[in-house]
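Dissemination and training. As part of the outreach component of the grant, students in the summer workshop were shown how a complex can be specified as a set of sequence lines and then modelled as a single object. The example used during the hands-on session is reproduced here so that future cohorts can follow it. Participants entered these lines:
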Amino acid sequence: MVKYTISLFSRYNKYIKKYIESSLSRKEGRMLELKEICFSRDNKKILKNINLNIDDNKMIVITGPNGSGKSTLAKIIMGIEKPDSGKIIFNQKDITNFSITERAKIGIGFAFQQPVKFKGLTVKDLIEISSGNSIKVCDACEILSDVGLCAQEYLNREVNGELSGGELKRIEIAMLAAKQSRLTIFDEPEAGIDLWSFNNLISVFENMHDNLKGSIMIISHQERILNIADDIILISDGVVQKHGKKEEILPYLFSKDNLCYKNKCIQSS
Amino acid sequence: MDKIEKALLKQIADLETIPVGAYNIRENGEGIAKNTTANIDIVTKKNKSGIDIIVKANTKNESVHIPVILTNGGFRDLVYNDFYIGENADVVIIAGCGIHNSTCETAEHDGIHSFHIEKGARVRYIEKHYGEGAGVGDRILNPETKINLCENAIMEMESVQIKGVTSTIRKTEANMEKGSRLIISERIMTTENQIAKTIFDVNLNGKDSSVHVASRSVAEDNSVQEFISNVKGNAKCFGHVECDAIIMGNAKVISDPKIEANNIEASLIHEAAIGKIAGEQLIKLMTLGLTEKEAEKQIINGFLK
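and obtained this result:
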């Protein structure tokens, strides 16, 4: 009985600790700060002095015309690209010189626009690497069914060229769901995905937003993805044009005289 | 059996105890344990070194283990093993050779295996090669496999060279009759100054015969690998050869594929690729929290799985 009480107490203690931790971090609010980020390639200025503050537990959608620097910005946050100047602060820590691996370990995740294929590595291998642990079939099943894949059929399949673009995309998203990052970045998740999958994609992001302790940052052109955002960031020509609540930004994006609307960089579905 | 011998058997044949079914264990040129069953006979050759493995027609779900271990340096073991697989039999054969060489002299095992697979029979043949030991003496393995597939017979061959083999020349020759199928999967890893050469010669002689050869290899450090294949389509047949190699360090990989169609109905495909590990693969795994070295290891282990 005593043993049981102690174990019960320690279990609750764990939850209380987690709750306090999460509410503390919620109170602090700010998760990511980008300070004066500049990035050039081949004498072309791609990002021009970007300043951004991203809050915790938010769904943020970054939108803007093709070639405006959105993907580059996402890669700079993950550490795949190094900025020419500027600072990146994550949870009050300067991570500007952190490697990709270090950033992944402190809680940044990144879903590629073009998922990478691996001859020999299976869906199960990749989900296990993502979660950092060996994974039970039932847990893998839950993660995969959330992205519309049957675990039985896919768990032992190689993530190679035999899978379709849509399947690779769903597996990519499943990996990020398994990783449970504080900040999860999706680079155009809708690219190469069919309409049926797209409908599910919206609910996958909504579920992730509800269950994940952290923020989700999605680069997207899709109106329906913009609609599930808390905040929207509009990037154009390497500059943050607008950053605010969805309710403020959406009307601007769809106003007839907005360049972005005219250029059809927003796709309604 | 001592610790070294047990460890070698575990590496090459997954054996921790005496296997179930028929077996013949050979150490340093001599048979040290043998067992036959009602359907599978193992007969020691009289005129030369080796054994005949005779599987009765219609034998189902049985296995034969014939591992070879070498623990003496300065020893060359040449062995001839002949397999006679009766009509409609379905068996698994686990071969393989492990060398532990702690001397400065060469230890070599050359295994010449001939398969005579009768009508409708099916064989799954698993062959693992492995070398270890602190000595500077070479560990050489030269396996030769001759396969004769009768009508509608099937052979699946898994050939794996795990590591530690200084030099190897692996020859596989197949003659295939009507409706027969051959599926070969090869995995090779070389490091340091090792040399590995693979030669496949397949003759698709019978109508509707088919072969699929998939070779994956990783060459590290200063090692050299050569892949040679020659598939001849002499009838209405299908042949598919694919070889993929990952090259690292100062290694060298040569891929020399040849397909030869001698019949208008022959359909033959060859795919070959050599390249270093793709940068985007490393980056992807690093975004999941692995270091570059860990990512490299995962990619190679998966590739050779």
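Chain A touches chain B through 23 residues (CB under 8 Å). Students were then asked to discuss how this feature might be tested experimentally.
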